[in-house]
Amino acid sequence: MAVTGPDNSALVGYVLSLGDDSLVAAQRLAEWIAASPQLEEDVAVGNIALDLLGQARSLLTYAGSLEDPPRTEDDLAYFRDERDFRSVHLVERANGDFGVTMARLLFLSSYHYELYARLQRSADETLAAIAAKAVKEVDYHRDHATMWVLRLGDGTELSHARMQAAVDAEWPYVEELFGNEHLDPALVESGVAVDPAELRGPWREYVAGVLAEATLTLPDVPPAVTGGRRGVHDEQMGYLLAEMQHLARSHPGATW
Amino acid sequence: MYGNDFTAPDEGSREPAEDRLAEFERLLETEGRVEPRDVMPDGYRKTLIRQIAQHAHSEIIGMQPEGNWISRAPSLRRKAILMAKVQDEAGHGLYLYAAAETLGADRGELLDMLHSGRQKYSSIFNYPTLTWADMGAIGWLVDGAAIVNQVPLCRCSYGPYARAMVRVCKEESFHQRQGFEILHTLSHGTEAQKAMAQDAVDRWWWPSLMMFGPTDDASPNSAQSMAWGIKRFSNDELRQRFVDMTVPQAEVLGLTLPDPDLRWNEERGSYDFGEIDFTELFEVIKGNGPCNKQRLAHRVRAHEDGAWVREAADAYAAKQARRTSEVA
Ligand SMILES: [Fe+2]
Ligand SMILES: [Fe+2]
Questions:
Q1: Do A248 and B74 touch (CB under 8 A)?
Q2: Model ipTM?
Q3: What digits encode the pLDDT tens for the residues B238-250?
Q4: What is the sign of the dihedral through the CA atoms of B111, B117, B120 and B126?
Q5: pLDDT digits (tens, 9 = 90+) for A88-117
Q6: Domain A9-217+228-250 class, CATH top level
Q7: Which of B71, B192, B306 sits opposite A243 (nearest CB)?
């Protein structure tokens, strides 16, 4: 790996941004287990959350292994403070109704699909292997979200209105996925990282197709001001982390 | 109750003619399997529907006490294992509702009966999960007791129920091992972790013993269920089997079971244990347990909040069907 000399911080930051998106998305999605509209969906949402958690674990483990001294996945998940997390606002805000969750999942999984389809050819072998496994998983996530957006968008009058409202509310948080200011251009040039800006076009093509088929209107709203990649999060992120980290932090050094 | 039903069966209404029941009797005698299309007594069908539904309800209500710790699991590995476990329980619910539907029941109607309190679920899930160690104690003791109840059901006379139980039991034994492993890690960890493990076992031991139902002399339905090949062993036999299996495991864990009368009885080749105070169990069954209202309210809320989603799915499916037929 050409880009990772003695200073790995650019690569570590990139891998953390990928891992944190998945970790935080899994944490939010898991809130639906035992609370979803039907039993089949408890199983499906559980599957997706498990996939995302699995991806997060591989990515955090890898990021931690590049550090000196190395850190474990749990060090990174449980003992980093909010400002050190690199996740986007799309995944971290508190859940709304099921339509909101499916809008987010459609947006996230379509982005993940384009991302991992390219990252499986990364010059970094570990990232390539993680991506090759993940792309199959997020393909299923995208199918699942697509099915629900179609059903809700083209279902009843009420579901159509709710699904449109969900798409409108989440749309401003999409642009942050394609930001690349946090990324060292050298990582892209050396073929290690995928430039997120490159994903915007194919992402939009897929999502616009789904929304049209679902009889939904493509929103025309400006992006929200965000800063997840710099560790500037939504206020709800603090509560998510407080809940997730509390037990581990109450017993520093303990094994579970 | 979680594979061990002990409420009164409804009286049968329309019995098939006696000669048509001869085949059913023959199946029972030869330990054959009754299948959905076979003739069966109305009481048999009703008893099974109620027991399977109650079992299914227990699986899905049981997702709540453990789901309660997914967001707080203390390591990512434990979080993944717990998520997968709760998801398994949803799967168990699905198999069991499907088994009940082979008897002519409807999942939606069974859920309505759960939501309105006309059908019950296992009382064990009306206790709160207060610490992480409860994830260990539930896996080890509650899944452990469920296995003891359910393994004989794999030979239940009703085919679809028996086959569902084979799948369920395989997964429950994973859960039991995972629970044991959580407690083992805690009891070999820090002082605080060990205390957490002991506290959880103290709280879950007696409710787990009560999962087998009242003592045999106070269990009026068992005879009929035994004759029908739905039940194979009495409540007390199963409870004893559970105690005998669990005590040596507690020793490996280095944890104490909260019963001063617990001791090996050489003559019986079994452990003697103290008298169970069923007053609490009956209070919990009546609805006065620590979490009864909360568990049911959560279930009803999820169902009601999801109504618009299910309606949309139905409406979309109907539109799609119309589109397909228009094209054709
Ligand atoms: Fe289960
Ligand atoms: Fe289980």
A1: yes
A2: 0.97
A3: 999 999 999 999 9
A4: positive
A5: 999 999 999 999 999 999 999 999 999 999
A6: mainly alpha
A7: B71
Helix (H), strand (E) counts: chain B? 14, 2
Query: Is residue B269 classed exposed, middle or buried when 0-12, 13-18 and 19+ CB atoms within 10 A define those classes?
Result: exposed
What residues of chain B lie within 8 A of the CB of A29, using their CB? none
> Quick one: how far is CA A133 from the chain centroid?
16
Ligand nearest to the CA of B59: 1
**In terms of CA atoms, which chain B residue is nearest residue A58?**
B76
Residues of B whose CB is below 8 A from A47: 87
Query: Can you tell me the distance from the alpha carbon of A47 to that of A26, in angstroms, rounded to the nearest whole number?
Result: 10
Nearest CA in chain A to B135: A256
Task: Kindly report the nearest CA distance between residue B188 and chain A, in angstroms.
Answer: 9
Cα-based angle B48, B282, B220 (whole degrees, multiple of 5) = 45
Q: Does B193 contact chain A (CB < 8 Å)? A: yes
3-state helix, strand, coil in chain B (%, to 5): 70, 0, 30
On whether the CB atoms of residues A171 and A219 are closer than 8 A, the answer is yes
Whether residue A150 and residue B71 make contact (CB cut-off 8 A), yes or no, is no
Burial B32-69 (b: 16+ CB within 10 A, else e): ebbeeeeebbebbbbbbbbbbbbbbbbbbbbbbbbbbb
C-alpha distance from residue B167 to each of B93, B94, B153, B172 (Å): 12, 12, 11, 9
Could you report the per-residue pLDDT of B48-59, keeping only the tens digit for each? 999 999 999 999
B17 contacts chain A (CB < 8 A): no
Please choose, from the candidates A35, A186, A250, the residue with its C-alpha nearest in 3D space to the C-alpha of residue B190. Answer: A250
Distance CA(B237)–CA(B219), nearest Å, equals 13
C-alpha span between A27 and A49 (Å, rounded): 7
Ligand at minimal distance from the CA of B122 is 1
| Separation of alpha carbons B326 and B328, rounded Å | 5
Has residue B288 got a pLDDT over 80?
yes
CA dihedral A85, A89, A94, A95 (to 10 degrees): -120
Q: For chain A, state the CA radius of gyration.
A: 18
Max CA distance (Å), chain A: 59
Domain ranges of chain A: 9-217+228-250
Which residue in B309, B310, B314, B320 has the most chain A C-beta atoms within 10 A of its own C-beta, making it the best mutation to test that interface? Answer: B309
Dist. CA B226–CA B230, nearest whole Å: 6
Site from B77, B94, B183, B308 to mutate, A interface, most A CB atoms within 10 angstroms: B308
- Torsion B317-B320-B325-B328 (CA) sign: negative
